[in-house]
Structures are given as C-alpha cells and as structure tokens.
Design a protein that fits this description.
heterotrimer, A alpha/beta (336), B mainly alpha (146), C mainly alpha (491), A: D-Maltodextrin-Binding Protein, domain 2, 2 domains, three-stranded antiparallel sheet, 13 helices, globular, C: 491 residues, 74% helix
C-alpha cells in the first residue's frame, strides 16, 4: 500500500508542471467549444478490431482528449471487410452532427478509390487532426538459410531463384504494392503467401513458415527484442530514430519510390457543422500536444511527419498524399 | 408438399450459387481461386437437394405447421422483430424497443395494457441503462436525443 | 526463473487486497456480461477496457483476464436456460443443456457446467505454469498446413455430430460453407456474393446467425403452443448434479480439458472450435449416442470444459510470445501495450511480476468463479419459473441488443430474424441446425489455410505430407473417415 501512495505522490509531483501548462490549454479549448455541445458521449470509430495498432492509437488518443476536453469519448469498433465496412459507415451512414469522429488511416483512400464502386469518395471524410505515421518495415528471419541477409541479398536470391522466397503479404494493400514495385524494378519473383494482416505474417516468419514479412514496428518489436526476427528495411523517407541501424528501403535497393506509410488521422463525416468540426479538431490538437501521449506513441514506434504536424497545412498535404496514391493506382493499372 | 418445395429450392439455390462461383474463377495461379470452395459447396447443396427430392415419397415427414391463432402468434413475433429492425434507425433503440415489446406482449400473449406498458418501460430502461451506461455501448438514438 | 519460483512471485503479486479485489470484480463482471445473450468475452473486454486505464498494469491485466474467462463461465447460463447462446462458444451447450432444463434438470446442467469450467480452467493453468515456454516454442511453428489439418479434423467431427438424416446434415454443412463465402475473400481481397451491398461485404455475422438460429427459433417454437406457462412445466428436480451425473461427467471433463487446451493453441481455433469438437468426441465414444440432443449431461460437461481450457491454451502464445490467436487475445495484447508493457518472448523475463501475476490470477479467478457461479445456479434456475409471456419479450429485447453489440449494425438484426425464421422452418422439417453453424465457423479458416499452404509451397499439395505434424493429423483424419464408413456399413 505504501508503495502505491508513494507512486501516486511522485506522479502528482511530476504532473504539476504539466498541469500548470495544461490549465491554459484547457482554457483555450473551452473558448472554441460550441454552445450545447456535446450533450452526450462522442464516438471515436475505429474500423479495425479491438487490440490492433489502430485501436490502441485511438484509445490512447481518446484517453487524452477526455483529459483535456472533459468530454466523454467512447471508442467503438466497427469492423468488417478489412476496414471497408467502417469506412463506408463513416462516409454514408454516420450522422454529421459532431458526435462521430473516425480514427482512420490512409488505407481509407485505397478503399475509396478502388473498392467503393462509386458509393462514396474519400472527400466524404474531412480530416480534423493528424496523429502519427507508421512506415511499413521489411522483416527477416534470424534463423534458417536467409538469416543475417540484407534486403538486397534476399531480393537477389528471389531473382536468381524465382518463386522460392516466401513473402508474407496482405492482398490488395500496400504490402502487395511494395512487392510489385520491388519485383518490377529488380526482376525478382517472390512466392506470395496471403495473410489477413502484417502481424500474422510476422508471426509466420518467427515460426519459419515464411522467409520475409512486412509489418509495423509495434507488431514485431517484441519478437525483434527477443531476437526472433530482424528488421531489414524501412519504407520511409528517412531512417527511424529508434531503428538507426536499419536502412530505408530506398537506401537498400537504390530508388526513391519505396515509401509506404500508414498515416493515421482523425476525420468527421462531410457536413458536420463548422463550429463543431473546429472544436473536435482543437480537442485532438490539444491531446497531440500532451507530452504523455507523444511519448506513448513514440513507444509504439511511430514518427511524426513534419508535413502534417502543422494543422494549417495538414489538410492540403494529406490531399497531396491522396493524389499521389491515386496516381500510383492509375500508373499500375488498378484504376482507370 | 412443403418438403418437396424446399428440396427444389435447395437445387435452385445450389445451381445459382455454383454458376456465380464459376464466374469468380475456380483455379488460379497458385491453387484454388475465389470460386472453388463456393462452387463445390453449391454442388453439394444441389446434389443433396436432388437426393432428398428423389427420396421424399418414401420418407415423408409431415411438418406440423401452425394454424390459426398459433400461426398468428409466430408471425406476431416475427413482425415485432422486423418492426424493431426497421424502426431503430429512425426512432432510436429506446422507443423502438418499447413499442416492439408492447406489440409482443399485447398481440402475441394477450397481456393487459397496464402490465404491458409497465413491463416494456421497465425492461427498456434497464436494458438501456445496463448497455448504454454501465457497459458504455452506444445504442442508436432517436431524433429526440435518446 | 523456474515454474515454482515464478508461481511464488505470482501469488505474491496477486494476493494483495487490491489485486484480489480486481480479480473478483473482473470475475463477477465477466460472469454477468457473459450471461447476457450475444455479449461474449470480446464485446465485454472491448467495452470495459477503458475502466482498466486508471489501474496499474498488473491490476488492469488481472481484471481483463478474469473478465475473459468469467464470460466463458457465464455464457452457458442462457444457453441452458433459454436456448440462447451467450456467445458462439456456448452454442453447443444449447443442444443438451436446454433439453436438460426442459426436463427440470437446469440446476444439474448449470452445476456441471460451472464445475467443468473450473476443472478445465485450473488444469489449463497448471499446464501453462509448467510447460508454457515449451508449448510456445511448438505453437509458433504452427503454420497454415497445420491449421488446415486441424480444420479438416473439425469438419470430420462435424459429420460425426450430425443427428438424424445424414444427407440433410451434409446439406447443412455445405450451406454453412456457402454462407461463409459471402464477403471478402481474405486470400486475394475480392468480393464474393456481395452483389454490391456494403453490409454483405463484411460477411454474415456469426453472432447474428447463432442468436437467430437458436434463440429466436426457440422463441418461435414456444409461442406456437397456447398452454405454455413457463419454460419448464415439470417441477425443478433438485439443484445439484446427482452421483450418476458425476460419474457420467468426470471423464468428459478431462477429455474436454485436454482437447480444449490443444485447440486453444491453434490460431483461429479457440473456445468455439473446442466446444463442438468436444461434443462430437463425446458423442462418438459414447455407448448411447442417441441420448445426445435429448439431455445427455456429457454434452454439457465436455464442451463447457473444452471452452474454458481453450482460454488457457490461447493465453499461452500471448504471454510467452506476444502472438494473438483470436480477436479476444489480440485485445488483451492491445491492453498490454496501452498499459505500456511490451509483449513478446522477453515478456516473461522482463516483467516476471506481470507474467506470473496473470498466471496466478487465473488460479484465483477460477476459484472465485466457482464460488460465484454455484450459488447463482439456484437463482438462475428460478428464472425458469417466470411466466413465459413475460420472459420472452425481455429475452427478445436482450437478443436484439446482444446481436447489435457485435457490429453496431442494424443489418445484423435482419440476419438474426432471417435465420430465426429459417431455423424455425428447417426445424419443423427435421433438419439439424448445429452443423450449419459449425461449418460457418470452420469454413473461412479451412479455406484460408488451404490456400495459404498451397501458396507457400513450391511443391503444391506435397507440403501436407512434408510437414510431420500435418501429415500425422491428416492421417488421423483419414482413419476417422474410414471408421465412420465402417460404422455405417455395419449398421
């Protein structure tokens, strides 16, 4: 019991400066709060199952938004169709009254452009706050014939002996796209093994059932620390601060198009009243300034894209990323 | 007669599903494609329907479908649930549930008005409290905010 | 740190007032939530996760773990009493458990379910304590071919389970496979049988099917009859299992525990698969298989033990490797991360207090749950005394909420109603509904693992023979099929 009290006192002491500066942030937020809003809990919709990376991001965010705004936030998982059902719900069914906020990723663009079949567009969801970015990372084994090899060496083997290197992939998403790029540029041919998510592929890698996998840092960190898998290449523009020894995919293969990053951001359905949208956005910004939240996100192995952290330029730059993705689909014949 | 109709239904369903599955492609580059499993399953449904149809004169089981008041009660329950599904998006869970329960209590089991209203009210309030507040689930709201 | 040292550490961690209280609270909440139709461990954990944020990592994880298996204990209650499954893993308990309730033996059924769950849960934790690292090392090598073999075994078990006409049973299994194909093909991302509907692209929700096919169908069957005052018209004969019940149940409990634990390790397996494989096993080796479906207590003892043992089995990969095998354990992992703990193979060495604390809490939790559930048996059994005309609208209301809780999608209510009506009609025409549900659960995993296995194999189908575990299991399947033919030829 004594230790509990001691911990509590210590936390209170450490939190006091944060609380002091927090008082201003809370006041700021109070200024943009619309009248009579909210009168009930706000739903943060997550389109992926509970416990996953997106869900953890959303719950951490909700925890801190509640702290700063005093509003009740309920995190709700609307799953199905690898995100499709949730995205469609947000875009077409959720009432634009400010009580629904979607915590989603740029994977929504793929759903909107390739699979929505005209039922909705990505412009039906308006971004209100940027959360973080998580690059796709190639992960290799620490056991077996491919252990210790670099990305370049493995790609070479895939080229010399086509259809022998087993690569875990998630069909119809950036896992496939980066493999397409690598294969197109190097003439390699991987044996693709489909999984429902990056994590499943990495687990298969740890068990020796595939030879190379892709996923996010939070998905393989435990296994990497234990030496069961090793990160080989990061599909980001620069090396990650916590993986300094891992080259970027561009460095490893010599190119500049190997950039596949999950960008997480919060949206509201189009048509939400402007004052409520502004308030919800401000609440997210306030939470994102909280050093505790930033620290928890960094622990999960994300980074903060400088192009998106400035709220004034976020929307425009997100649109630029979306347009770049559309171009990619058109270039590779997935979209007419 | 009903059994016969059902067997024909299985045959048609299996056939249609098999045809659709065929269009999805049966075999791809690395083994079965999207259509293979549904195709085989649909064929089995169809085959089973045929076997049952051929057998039915001998092994006829006369189904005891309800008549009259009993049928009314069964349909009443179905109607109540259908009403619930239709009206929840517009009336919200609380009101839709309340009305549905009254329908079920009155029409199906002929309970008194006072009893029905009281039970419906209490049940809905408890359920909404339990799921909405205690468990924190967002139940659909009506235009009146709850 | 060896197992005994670890257990000492763990009990040191758990046997504090706060942690004991949290374990108890989690067990209570889990049981109550599990009793609610349709709200199973996943929904309970997702809804209650925020409560744990203010707790310490140990406290939070202990509470979540006890909610998990509390929900498994509670799930059998409505299955037995009202034929409405508390969650998918309790479907099989409806088959014989509700029949027992109708015969006035609800108390015995509930009691055996609780005790079976306790035995299985405790045995599972004991195995976990001593063998977790070794088991984890094997479990991680389980790949698509092994999963496929387990799924084939599951389908064969389903065929064993079929009561009544074999042709109708096979039709139901095939229909289940077909229904499972509705949605997105996970192997290549294409839509199948969705006809442009967004709701269908998510697939048919298992929970809606289960509640419709069992719960709603049962209500429809019951309201047909005019003279239907309560669920049970006989006197409730005693609240405790008799000696005969014990003698019949203890071996199914042990078998169920073993089977369930193994299946919990298999990714995508878990409590649902464990419960019905246990049922099929008990039916197969019973001297009087015709009793199953009419109130055979083995049909309650086995599956209820199996689904609790599967909980322990599925937690091993989470704690020892940081690998989730099903959505519930994925959520537990997420909770660990939110609490700032890094799961993975180093978890046991980096946080022995947390690892062993969770293990110890499972011993304690099982005891709490037994102490909680046994007295409640009397209370639940009284529920059956409520006049049916009052009971059924409330039951339907709870079914609606329970179904809705899965995806918060009104479409699922239509699925529930549709399958309720379908079940009603099919039941009249002597179709056995359970095989449909089981096929619906197994089909996606079977198809996915088959296609994954072929995709990863340069030699095509040879991979099933090249891997020893798979080859062994598939041989066992072939033997079982041969036995089945021999049996039908004989009779």
């Amino acid at each position: 019991m004594k230790s509990v009290i001691a911990v509590a006192l210590l936390s209170a002491l450490l939190a006091t400066p944060a609380v002091a500066q927090g008082a201003d942030a809370k006041a700021e937020l109070g200024k943009v709060k619309p009248k009579d809003f909210p009168t009930g809990p706000i739903e943060y919709t997550v389109v992926y199952p509970a416990g996953g990376g997106m869900d953890v991001t959303a719950r951490l965010l909700a925890k801190h938004v509640e702290k700063w705004s005093g509003d009740k936030i309920v995190v709700n998982n609307r799953t199905g169709g690898a995100g499709m059902v949730g995205h469609a719900y947000l875009a077409t069914q959720a009432k634009p009254d400010g009580y629904t906020v979607g915590v989603i990723a740029n994977l929504m663009w793929g759903d909107a452009m390739l699979r929505a079949q005209g039922r909705w567009a990505y412009t039906d969801l308006e971004p209100i706050g940027y959360l973080n970015s998580d690059p796709l990372i190639w992960v290799g084994p620490t056991d077996g014939p491919y252990k210790g090899m670099s990305v370049k060496q493995i790609v070479q083997i895939a080229k010399d002996k086509p259809n022998t290197v087993r690569a875990a992939t998630v069909p119809g998403s950036m896992w496939d796209y980066i493999l397409d790029q690598v294969e197109a540029n190097s003439g390699a041919k991987f044996l693709r093994v489909p999984f429902q998510g990056g994590g499943a592929g990495i687990n298969a890698l740890a068990g020796g059932n595939v030879d190379i996998a892709q996923g996010f840092f939070s998905e393989f960190r435990g296994l990497a620390d234990a030496g069961k898998v090793a990160p080989l290449g990061v599909a980001a523009p620069e090396r990650l601060s916590f993986l300094k020894d891992t080259p970027t995919m561009n460095e490893a293969l010599g190119g500049n198009e190997y950039q596949w990053i999950i960008i997480r951001f919060a949206v509201v359905p189009k048509g939400t009243p402007a004052d409520r949208k502004a308030y919800l956005g401000a609440a997210v910004q306030a939470a994102m300034k909280d050093p505790e939240l930033v620290a928890e996100y960094l622990k999960a192995g994300v980074y903060f894209d400088p192009k998106l952290t400035d709220p004034a330029r976020m929307e425009a730059n997100l649109k630029a990323y979306a347009d770049a993705e559309r171009e990619f689909y058109q270039k590779t014949g997935r979209l007419k | 007669m009903f059994e016969r109709a059902l067997n024909i239904f299985w045959i048609l369903l299996g056939g249609a599903a098999a045809a659709y599955a065929w269009t999805l492609g049966l075999v791809g580059s690395s083994g079965p494609d999207s259509g293979l499993f549904p195709f085989i399953s649909a064929l089995i449904v169809m085959a089973a329907g045929v076997v049952l149809l051929l057998r039915s004169p001998r092994e006829a089981v006369a189904p005891d479908f309800p008549r009259g008041a009993a049928l009314g009660r069964v349909l009443g329950v179905a109607a109540g649930l259908a009403f619930m599904a239709v009206s929840i998006p517009y009336l919200g869970f609380a009101v839709a549930g309340f009305v549905t329960m009254i329908i079920l209590l009155r029409a199906v089991e002929k309970s008194g008005w006072l009893f029905s209203i009281a039970l419906a009210f209490i049940s809905v309030v408890v359920v909404v409290w339990l799921f909405g507040r205690v468990l924190g689930m967002t139940l659909p709201r009506g235009p009146w905010g709850w | 740190m060896d197992a005994f040292g670890g257990l000492l550490t763990g009990f040191g961690v758990i046997l504090t007032p706060e942690n004991l209280y949290l374990c108890f609270l989690g067990s209570l909440i889990g049981t109550l939530v599990g009793v609610l139709p349709g709200v199973g461990p996943l929904a309970a954990l997702a809804l209650l996760l925020p409560i744990t944020f203010t707790l310490t990592p140990v406290g939070g994880m202990v509470m979540l773990a006890s909610i998990f298996y509390g929900a498994m204990y509670g799930g059998s209650t409505t299955s037995i009493l009202l034929n409405i499954p508390g969650e998918a893993a309790s479907v099989v308990t409806c088959l014989d458990g509700h029949q027992m309730a109708k015969q006035g033996r609800a108390g015995a059924a509930l009691g055996i379910a609780a005790i079976g769950s306790f035995v299985a849960g405790t045995l599972g934790v004991i195995v976990m304590t001593f063998f977790a690292p070794a088991i984890a090392a094997v479990a991680i090598r389980f790949g698509p071919p092994e999963n496929f073999a387990v799924m084939v075994l599951g389908v064969i078990c389903t065929l064993y389970m079929i009561a009544g006409s074999l042709v109708k049973g096979v039709l139901m299994v095939a229909l289940g496979f077909l229904t499972a194909a509705i949605g997105i093909d996970v192997v290549n991302g294409r839509e199948r049988f969705t006809f442009g509907s967004i709701d269908l692209s998510a697939g048919i929700e298992l929970l809606a099917v289960v509640i419709g096919l069992f719960g709603v169908t049962e209500v429809l069957n019951n309201v047909e009859r005019v003279v239907k005052s309560t669920v049970v018209t006989d006197r409730i004969r005693g609240l405790w299992p008799t000696l005969a019940d014990w003698r019949a149940s203890w071996r199914p409990m042990l078998r169920g525990s073993g089977l369930g634990f193994f299946l919990g390790l298999v990714p995508g397996g878990g409590p649902v698969t464990a419960s019905f494989m246990s049922y099929a096993l008990e039916k197969r080796i019973s001297a009087h298989p015709e009793r199953f479906g009419n109130g055979a207590i083995e049909g309650v003892a086995g599956p209820e033990s199996a689904n609790n043992a599967a909980v322990a089995g599925s937690i091993i990969p989470v704690l020892s490797l940081g690998i989730p095998g099903n959505p519930v354990t994925a959520l537990l992992l997420g909770a660990l991360v939110i609490h700032g703990v890094q799961p993975g193979p180093l978890f046991i060495t980096q946080r022995p207090d947390l690892f062993w604390g969770i293990v110890a809490s499972m011993y304690v939790g099982n005891v709490f749950l037994l102490l909680l559930n046994l007295p409640l048996v009397g209370l639940w059994a009284q529920l059956l005394r409520i006049p049916y005309r009052v009971l059924f609208p409330v039951v339907l209301l709870l079914s609606v909420v329970g179904t809705y809780s899965a995806n918060k999608n009104v479409f699922d209510l239509w699925v529930m109603l549709g399958f309720g009506l379908l079940g009603y009609v099919l039941h009249k025409l002597a179709y056995d509904l359970a095989p449909f549900v089981i096929a619906l659960v197994l089909a996606p995993l079977l198809e996915q693992s088959l296609r994954q296995s072929l995709a990863m194999s340069p030699d095509g189908a040879m991979i099933f023979l090249q891997r020893p575990g798979t080859a062994l299991m598939l041989t066992a399947c072939a033997v079982l099929v041969a036995l089945m033919f021999r049996r039908t030829k004989k009779s």
